[in-house]
Amino acid sequence: MGERRKRESDDGERSLIKAPSSASLSSAGPSAASPAPADLERAARKQFQQDVTPGFVYVLAVFSAIGGFLFGYDTGVVSGAMLLLKRDMNITALWQELLVSGTVAAAAVSALLGGYLNGLFGRRVCILTASFTFAIGGIVLGSAPNKEALLVGRLIVGLGLGIASMTVPVYIAETSPPHLRGRLVTINTLFITAGQLIASLIDGAFSYMQHEGWRYMLSLSVVPALLQFLGFLFLPESPRWLIQKGLTQKARRILSQIRGNQNIDEEYDTIKSSIEEEEKDCGGGGPVIWRMLTYPPARRALIVGCGLQMFQQLSGINTVMYYSATILQMSGVQDDKLAIWLVTVTAFTNFLFTLLGVWLVERVGRRRLTLGSIFGTVLSLCILSVGFLLSAQHSPPVTLHLTDPTTPNSSCTTHLSCEPCMLDPSCGYCYQENSTAVFDSSCVPVNPASTERAAWGKCSNSTHLPDSGIWAYNFCPTSYSWVVLLGLVLYLACFAPGMGPMPWTVNSEIYPLWARSTGNACSAGVNWTFNVLVSLTFLHMAQYLTYYGVFFLYSSLALTGFFFIYGCLPETKGRRLEEIESLFENRLCSLRRWHMLFCVSCAAPMCYKDEQSFYGFGTTWGVNE
Ligand SMILES: O[C@H]1[C@H](O)[C@@H](O)[C@H](O)[C@@H](O)[C@H]1O
């Protein structure tokens, strides 16, 4: 590292791209009297680059982000498709779980595999493979004659998902200019949420087509998959990967094609010398993951990247997305069709606030955006939890204790109010209501063929007769639903701009080139693994901890995430990918940083000096610790 900096400052032209020295890193900050020359140069470069960003950079980002769209679509569409599949194919709860979670589990495995493929064949080939896999998966799903074929289709889609989720952010980061990188990589997450939104619209539209509607829902993803495949036949490989593989002439040509009329010598030289430097620095042989674990800067980056992805999922986003229909039903929406449409509102809110993230990322930076976002997420999870607690405390009682001779030992007869009845997966709450109260309520077993009605009694009829009861499966009527709704909206507004996109964005930039594929593969694998863990355990945990307990648990996990991010995440905004490695040269999570958190939260006057450098953290990170 030191040698590279020396070489750069010896060369007048190179001083423009000089990596910040330790001294400039530690002294800069809002308290500094005048900006360091390196900052001025960076500003000048930024100004220059902003004027001439060529359109081709956007074309690359948008075509790659179709991978994000497919990610969102394929994970989002399945819940609506399942409602129809349950009827059409009469599949059991176990099969439903397999069809939903099989895809996510396959994605976890293939994300890890994708690291190897990426290093070996390059980003472009991996994106082509992923879109081809999506298309095949879509065709298998659309024409599946039975549930086994459906599972095969869902697993194929999962394989595509894993590869796309780890490759696309890397490809976008490697082809973007530094001042736009955060925004362009965040567009990928915007496309994920767009995919989820479109999936919910398609689910809503085809839910009226009772027979075979699921075929259209599951196979429509073939269209964007083919579009991406065709596009990428003509789009170039990442120049950074080409340089790493020694294909320097081709890399030069592609870099100048991507950068339009800009002079690329400077960028090309930096990439090349940093690759040479990295090869010397990281030394040692053995598999990349081993070299990462034994080389401190790469190991620290890996901890930060995987930690971010883990906390993203532990904050419960997919539980909120998946169970938003239930949450909305608790707020008084009793019509199933309407509940499906309202899920669109949730998906739209997620999309809208991710758009805010795209706008904010280059303005406030990754670190502040993530910290603000996770802090708001903690608070809104607390509000959700309080909403569920109030609803549980005022849960309506069971007034009719009915027993059916065919199911005399059902656990449902033991529940005295709606709350425990709702938490028991084999029971539902059947009731009638007038404008002020719930009456004639009972806790009855759910129909084994469909959770949409009771096994017997007033709620067993699917055609709603005037004197039939209201069937509440998985929810309870409550007058505190507004608190839950408020929590839900606030949750999405806080989570979506930061915690949604930043783990992907940060991971695409923090690893040195030799470790980038492997680092992203591991962190994407962590994301998918925790995704499947959190969604699979939600209902079981709700049974033991109740809804408010689970959301409180998510909130505590998110709070732990806040401290982790506070202590360990450096600011990468505006830096060249080649400069970022230096941010991980010093120890993670130093005591000094916790001391500063204490100072800021207690507003201790003797700490003001430290506090100032804390706010200028982006520039002082990792130095002199
Ligand atoms: O960043 C994305 C996004 O926030 C999605 O809404 C969520 O479903 C994914 O799991 C996550 O990785």
From TrEMBL:
One of its GO terms (molecular function) is myo-inositol:proton symporter activity. The chain crosses the membrane at residues 55-73, 93-113, 125-145, 151-172, 184-202, 214-235, 301-323, 338-361, 373-392, 480-500, 521-541, 547-569. Residues 1-36 are annotated as: Disordered. One of its GO terms (cellular component) is apical plasma membrane. It catalyses: myo-inositol(out) + H(+)(out) = myo-inositol(in) + H(+)(in). Gene3D superfamilies: MFS general substrate transporter like domains. It is found in: Cell membrane. InterPro entries: MFS_dom, MFS_sugar_transport-like, MFS_trans_sf, Myo-inositol_Transporter, Sugar/inositol_transpt, Sugar_transporter_CS. CDD domains: MFS_HMIT_like (cd17360). Coiled coil: none annotated. Residues 1-16 have a biased composition (Basic and acidic residues). Keywords: Cell membrane, Glycoprotein, Membrane, Phosphoprotein, Transmembrane, Transmembrane helix, Transport. Residues 60-573 form the Major facilitator superfamily (MFS) profile domain. Its main location: membrane. It is a multi-pass membrane protein. NCBIfam families: SP. H(+)-myo-inositol cotransporter. Can also transport related stereoisomers. This is Proton myo-inositol cotransporter.
